[in-house]
Amino acid sequence: MLFLRRPIFFALTLLCVVGLFHLAGCGGSSNYRTLSNVSYDPTRELYSSYNKLFVKHWKETKGEDVEIVQAHGGSGDQAKKVVNGLEADVVTLALAYDIDAIGEQAQGTLKPEWQKQFPNNNCPYVSTIVFLVRKGNPKNIRDWDDLIREDVGIITPNPKTSGGARWNYLAAWAYALKKELGGSFDALKDSARAAEVEVANQKAFDFVKAVHENAVEMPAGARGATNLFVRNGEGDVLLAWENEALLTVVGQKNDEFEIVVPSISIVAEPPVAIVDSTVDKKGTRDLAEAYLNYLYSPEAQKLVADNFYRPSNADALAAHAEWFPNLELVKIDDIFGGWKKVQKEHFAEGGIYDKMGLSTR
Q: Which are the contacts of 249, defined by CB distance < 8 A and separation ≥ 6?
C-alpha cells in the first residue's frame, strides 16, 4: 500500500508547489490584485481592449499584475445586481441615474458627489442615437417621423431595463417636442409659454408611444437589440447607440447595413464611478481611481474613438471626424431637467412610460 500512496503524495505536493508558484509569481512574492468593472451591454469590445491597455500601463508604472473582471448587461439590471450584492470596484453604466440608484438603494456604496470625481461629470466619452437600416434603406427611413409609419418595424430595447433604451426614448421625445414648439426649445425657458409647452409634451407623448407601438420586439439590453436586428434579421430599423451602429458597419465591415443620422438626437452620457464600499473593503481605491483616470489619457481616448465612442479629448475626436458627423445634439439637463427628474416623471412605476401601456412588451 505504501508503494501506491507515494505517487499520490508526490502528485499532491507538486500541485501545491505549482499553485504557490502561480500565486507568488516568478519573483517569489505576491503582486497580484483584481478589479471588477460592472458595465452595460455595448461596452464589451471597448473594455476588452481597454483592460489590456490598463493592465500593461499599471505593470509598467507600478510593477504590479492586475486582473480586470468584467460584467455586462442592461444598465438598469446591472445597477440592480450591484444593489443586491454583485461586487464592483467600479461601475461604467449607460446613464447617471443607474449609478445614483446604487448609492440611494445600497447605503454607503457611493459618495453623493460621485459625479464630481472625474472630468466631464465622470463621462470620459459620449455617444448619441442614430438609426441602423438595411442596405439600400428599403423603407426610405430618413428621420424620426418615419418611425411611426405603419409599414416600419422597429427594434429598440425596453426602457424599463436598458439605459440605452431610455436615451432612445428621450431622443424621440426631444424631436417631437421641438417640432411641436415651432422648431425651437425657447419656450422651455419662458414661463409665460407654459401652456404651450404642456400641449407640446402631450403631442410628444403620443409620438413616442407610436414609435414604441411599432416595436417588433424590445429586449432587455442594447446588445440584445443589435443581435435581433443584425443576426436574426428582425425589424426594418434599429434605434441604436452610434457606437453600436458604427461597430456593425465599420468595425465589422458589414455592407449589409447603413447608418441614418436623424436631424436631431441626444447626447448619450455614460458615466463611470468608484463603488466606495467595495474599494474600501478590498483596499483597491488606488487601483480603481487609476483605472478610471486612465480612461482620459491620450492613449485611452484614441482607443475610445477606435471603438466608435465620441471621445472627450478634442484631438482624438477630430482624428475620427469621418465617423462622428455634426448634427443637433440636445442635453438631458437642458431639455428634461436631468436624470433624477426624468426617472421620476418618465420611468418610475406609474410614470409616463407606464401610462403608454408598453411596459410588458
A: 132, 255, 257, 258, 259
Residues near 218 by Cβ (< 8 Å), separated by ≥ 6? 156, 157, 158, 165, 212, 225, 358, 361
- Strands (DSSP E) along the chain, which ranges? 32-39, 65-71, 90-92, 125-126, 129-134, 154-155, 215-217, 237-241, 257-260, 264-266, 272-274, 310-311, 328-330
Helix (H, G, I), strand (E, B) or coil at 356: coil
Distance CA(126)–CA(208), nearest Å, equals: 23
Measuring CA to CA, which residue among 136, 143, 148, 86 is closest to residue 277? 86
Question: Strand, coil or helix: what is 126?
Answer: strand
Taking alpha carbons only, the member of 325, 134, 151 closest to residue 229 is: 134
The Cα angle at residue 321 between residues 314 and 271, in degrees rounded to 5? 50
The pTM score is 0.86
DSSP code at position 41:
G
pLDDT tens by residue, 135-169: 999 999 999 999 999 999 999 999 988 888 999 99
Secondary structure class of 237 (helix, strand, coil):
strand
Q: What is d(CA 196, CA 192) in angstroms, rounded to the nearest whole number?
A: 9
Record the cell numbers describing residue 18, joined without a space: 505549482
